[in-house]
Amino acid sequence: MKIFEFNPGIGALSVGFEYFGTNIVTQVQKINKNELFSYNSCHKQQFSVSKDEFIEISKLKDHDLGLLRPDFGISMTQKRFKEVKYYDLWSCLAYIEQFKPKIAIIITPVSVIPYLNTSFNYVEDGFHMVSKDMVVESMQKSGYIAWQLAIDQVQYGVPIYYPVNFYVAVRNDLGRPEDAIQPTILHGTSSGKRPYFSVADAIADLSTCRCEDACIYSTSPLNTYQAWCRKSAEDTVMNNVSSPVKPEHIELIRNMPEGVMSKVWTEGKIAKGSRSRADRPGDLGPDYHKLTGKGASIHPICPRPFTIREGMRIHGLPDHIILKDDISLNKQAAMVHEQISPLIAGPLHQMIDPYITPQNGF
Length: 362
Hints:
This protein is α/β, with parallel strands linked by helices. It has two domains: 2-188 and 341-360, Vaccinia Virus protein VP39 (Rossmann fold, 3-Layer(aba) Sandwich), CATH 3.40.50.150; 199-337, DNA Methylase, Chain A, domain 2 (Alpha-Beta Complex), CATH 3.90.120. It contains eleven helices and eleven strands. The strands form three sheets. A six-stranded mixed beta sheet has the order 2-1-3-4-8-7, with helices on both faces. A three-stranded mixed beta sheet has the order 9-10-11, covered by helices on one side. The termini are close together.
């Protein structure tokens, strides 16, 4: 399968398609040198593109699958739709219209859906909003059948609450099913579903904690999730560092109950971070490696934030994916937080599998 990836980050999602025995040849655009190092660590094919290099037009043709992740440039909590940057999204839709991959998947945050359920027409006094889903409509006009699918990764074996939105488009000449194929939810609280993987399930086998607390979890050693993370990995502790904690704050953090915001006076301000529960999926933000910041998280047992590797485990990233250790922890954590777990290739593959046939050129 020939895949084109736009803004893939470290490329975790495309790794998931390799689990289905797919022979992947990938073409990448919009990737920086730090992401490229990690991308090469987890893909069989090695790349040498720089972040400023433009792809030749000939290399954009004849792709089986386009994995496209536009960058909207702002926090989606902002209210004014004019401030959302659509350049990447327009580029992705233009790629679909011009180069006609057999299947295309656009990945967006769930929080951006209200912005995309409108179409914008420019008029003299500003923007005029028309209520409709412009992404699905654009894909249909380009000759595709298209679906919108919003899923939470925790339902597919990833130990974190992290909803993601997908637009899936299949070219009309590949066949038209009567209904969109809905992937089977694997994990949940209802009868017949496997229980969610927890924070303890994700990190209990990482025995590299430097704190004085004994990191003991109520989970069996090397469960199925941990075994999956370790598969094909040579070292399970790389990138296993977090921001340092001052000695005078350790006892304060140690006494914080689970599930509440910590309040630790540090350098003239109150650092607020939620203390995670070991028996539940994680809810980490981009600053999970620190005591303060957006989504800062405190380890459920140790008086410290999560390490980068622990965050990778909770985000559903296997151990053979490594990050450059000469870049800041802030950049490492941001790269992790932006990724979609390879496990999510499962439900996506379930949706497009009926089209991946020899008759369609796969």
